[in-house]
Amino acid sequence: MLKAAFIFVAEGADVKKDRSVVTTPAVELTTVGVVDYAEAVAVSRELVEDGVQAIELCGGFGHVGTAKIVEAVGDKAVVGVVRFDKHPGLGNQSGDSMYL
Asked: Which InterPro entries does the protein's record reference (predicted)?
């Protein structure tokens, strides 16, 4: 079974509460909400230690934020990203302009 995760950034997200797991016969998908890149890095490391092999990042992650996650997980997981240059859920900004 593939263990995968989706991480999204949202103001006021609670990394402990804003989390869910959906299990199908082929995939176990964990979703986690974080408030910034630092929290996303910590969560990414935790997820790969729990066996997650693939992480997808929401469009709120800019190029720098994505690179931070890639660096954090190394070769333990592949990282993909939904891409918005300006994310509507972040006031039409990139996470790079908010969290760096």
From this structure: DUF6506
